Every structure is written in C-alpha cells, then in structure tokens.
Amino acid sequence: QSVLTQPPSASGTPGQRVSFSCSGSSSNIGTNPVTWFQQLPGTAPKLLIYSNNQRPSGVPDRFSGSKSGTSASLAISGLQSEDEADYYCASWDDSLNGHVVFGGGTKLTVL
Amino acid sequence: QVQLQESGPGLVKPSQTLSLTCTVSGGSISGGGYYWSWVRHHPGKGLEWIGYIYDSGDTYYNPSLKSRVIISIDTSKFQFSLELSSVTAADTAVYYCARDRSNRAAAFDIWGQGTMVTVSS
C-alpha cells in the first residue's frame, strides 16, 4: 500500500488531453513539493516535473503539473503514442524523521 | 554529462547481505549539493525509496528498511554503496541508484540503468 494514492490506470486517444491525480496528506503533499516521473517499459524512471510544476530541460511543455492542498495532478496535452508508460508521483514526508514516498503509479494506455 | 552505473551480484541468498555500488561518471560526487540515492522497483509493483546520502556522509533512510540498510559514500572513488542485510524474497527487485537535486525534494533527475537482484537459495 503506497502512501500516495494514484489511480492504477488511465487511457486516451492521440491528440487528447489526459490528467492523473495523486492524493496524499498534510505530512507530504500538503507541506512539500511534488515530483512526477515517467517510466517506459524496461527503463529507468525519468524526471518529468519537480517542485510541483517545473519541467527539467528537455521535457516537452505538453507535460504540466499542479498542486492544491494535499493533492497533485499531472496533465499531458496532445497525447502521443510514445507517452504510453507508467507515471509515478513522489514527495517528501515529514513523519518518522522524514522520508521520500511514492505513489503506486498510473499506467497510461494510448488507444 | 553525469551518468550513474550500478554494479553488484544479481543473485543473493536469503538471510545474506545485498551489496551494490553506484559509480558516478562525467561529474563530481561532492560539492554539488546533491543527495545520492537508492530506489527499488519490485516486479509488478511501484517504486520504493531506500534512502540517500549527502557527500558529508549524512544519511536518510526509509523507516521501513532502516534497521537493515547502510548507505555509504567514497568520494575519492566517485562511488556510493548500498548494503541491505537479512534479505528475503521480498527484497527481489530492480535496484536503481539516482541523484536527488536537493534534500526533501524527491527530485531524482539522473538515474542509473538499474540492476536486477534476485533473492533465492
């Protein structure tokens, strides 16, 4: 059972806009920044969004992040077939002397 | 460009200690304000943070693994290491080393390719 809650699956068609949620609590998302990762099959995770809504260099602006209270969202606009992957959210949790927590991941299928 | 590479045995016997090393190339392991991390991915499940170490030697561990984990750093060799003791089948996973941009951020911006570790007799 992951500390951050994500829907297990999502789907969309090419060109569509999709969004995923990540729900936490006051000890993690409510207090600390949220990060999003994309993991393609058989590869290491890739940083997509950090500090709630910042994109690292090289990440297309089709990807955007937001946070409100104890929840966060990742949105992908202009969906492409290569966006089919697992998406994980993460945050720092202040409980138990502090530690990183991940969501269980959302598997995105591009129909 | 900074790159990370994990190394270590792919098979560990139950009750033994899992030992992995991550080698940093293309950049410095110290002085950059980064936190050098270990994350694992259980087959068919999500990601799990194991812990990280700052170049000063300060460490932060996952509370659920803290009693069995030691992360160390050797800046002269551009390496940091993971030791996980008393392993069971539940520790079978792909282990990644990663760089966190800062403390309390969970912003792992560079990852190794990962190494599969199986716990089995």
Description:
The complex is a heterodimer of chains A (111) and B (121). By secondary structure, chain A is mostly beta strands. Chain A has strands at 9-12, 18-23, 34-39, 46-49, 63-68, 71-76, 85-93, 99-102, 106-110. In chain A, strands 1, 3, 4, 7, 8 and 9 form a 6-stranded mixed beta sheet that branches. Chain A has a 3-stranded antiparallel beta sheet with strand order 2-6-5, with no helix packed on it. The N and C termini of chain A lie far apart (28 Å). In chain A, 40% of the residues are buried. The model of chain A has no long low-confidence stretch (mean pLDDT 96). In chain B, 0% of the residues lie in helices and 51% in strands. Chain B has strands spanning 3-7, 11-12, 18-25, 35-41, 47-54, 59-61, 69-74, 79-84, 93-100, 108-111, 115-119. In chain B, a hairpin with a 4-residue loop joins strand 7 (69-74) and strand 8 (79-84). Chain B starts with a strand and ends with a strand. The model of chain B has no long low-confidence stretch (mean pLDDT 94). Classes of the chains: A mainly beta (111), B mainly beta (121). Chains A and B meet through strand 3, strand 7 and strand 8 of A and strand 5 and strand 10 of B.
